[in-house]
């Protein structure tokens, strides 16, 4: 089977978040299932500079301006790159101008990506299309209104990001007039790219089973729960995984010392390096927590700051790595200044520091208010830092709480607390600190965490079965 994946980012070429990790890792996992994936990406400077390849004939309408596709291969990944400098030839963040505001022409930029996906799927004979998030949301619309049908799957990575644009954009899209309606792109009077993806796809997936249930409720549906309930039979949740070759503490060159589940003792060197990197006191007894991610309301960083007194009362230390909301960045700096040696903050993103946090912390905090899947907790499990997570979305699906029954059964892999509650996070931090101080018990919990299968194997099999199902139904 030949599958065309279309997305706005993919490692190792361009990354702003977990979407890129998934899009970059899934093709290799699907190859083992007999699915050959070609990934269509926008031709950002970082992408075009990294590839060679040959041009592929593709005519885009004048409304999108001059463009061409280039076929290339990067490592084990087959690529199609949409070279359209007027849309994508901009350095920096793929979605935002300097200063952080979205590019004003994001609607037409990513409409061009969706159109190119539909044209390439038909012209190059792909069996199915896999579109990721709102930036690829119009691929299904162009396929539905195009010259030949190709079945498609649309994957929601985060329903909060919807790609909503003024209705004045619609005439420039080149879709028939009846496509701008409830049965189409219209979304509260605007053009909804994510809404289009949900409406036109043959099947809808999201990145965990629990999130697939949550988004069909008003509380988590972000205005799209009615549509998702109406299409409930087409919606499923498939957990994200990790590239376990790339994320492997036994071979990771970014670490101060490599280690494994069979020999975790060298983690102590990573702990010391983490404390030094974040300005924490070299205290071997202090329960050491880390937060790695966006400093944002969704990710619960404000809850962590509220819970700092409880963490300090438990004798703990905290290392914070991330960037995001300016007020939260400032609050993290203030906390580090107020509690020198106990709280450390590095504002920015550094891949090596992130890996060191996973490898050196006792526990990684993932206190999100909502979380479609999350990769931080998977990295934490892989690197032996049993995560403390909010009981939501993919976090609930991937971490087994160390409650008394789970500890007695020997199956706990981390800790959970109710999402959105700083007091409950503080209590969970103190419970976790007590568990860490039970050295033998914590060693068992760590072994359980590192023994989890966080690979793509099971999930890739589920995706492959889904793709075969839609292709067979379309035959």
UniProtKB/TrEMBL annotation:
The record's annotation in CDD domains points to: GT5_Glycogen_synthase_DULL1-like
Pathway where this protein functions: Glycan biosynthesis; glycogen biosynthesis
Give the residues the record marks as binding ADP-alpha-D-glucose.
Answer: 15
Its keywords, alphabetically, are: Glycogen biosynthesis, Glycosyltransferase, Transferase
Question: Known Gene3D superfamilies for this protein?
Answer: Glycogen Phosphorylase B (3.40.50.2000)
Enzyme Commission identifier(s) = 2.4.1.21
According to UniProt, the reaction catalysed is: [(1->4)-alpha-D-glucosyl](n) + ADP-alpha-D-glucose = [(1->4)-alpha-D-glucosyl](n+1) + ADP + H(+)
Residue ranges of every copy of the Starch synthase catalytic domain listed in the record = 3-229
The protein's superkingdom reads: Bacteria
Identify the Pfam families for this entry. Answer: Glyco_trans_1_4 (PF13692), Glyco_transf_5 (PF08323)
Relate the protein's function as given in its record: Synthesizes alpha-1,4-glucan chains using ADP-glucose.
Name the protein family. Answer: Belongs to the glycosyltransferase 1 family. Bacterial/plant glycogen synthase subfamily.
Which HAMAP family is this protein grouped with?
Glycogen_synth
**Which named protein is this?**
Glycogen synthase
Organism (species): Paracraurococcus ruber
Lineage of producing organism: Bacteria, Pseudomonadati, Pseudomonadota, Alphaproteobacteria, Acetobacterales
